[in-house]
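Input chain follows. Return structure tokens only.
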Amino acid sequence: MEIEMELQQRIEEEGFEIAFNPPGDGSCFYQAAAFQLEFKSEILHDLIFDYLESHQFDVSYFTNV
């Protein structure tokens, strides 16, 4: 908790503010990105997964398999 308070103080000292702090429930990336893009997080999640499914590539190059 102390680290969060220190971070909040540093943010305020620099003139910024936290507009949205998503819950750490495993989908926080989608919720934060959706907030910035003014999307619903479920829609953004589906769009990203649909794109990834339709643009698959061979990952063996990266995994040395």
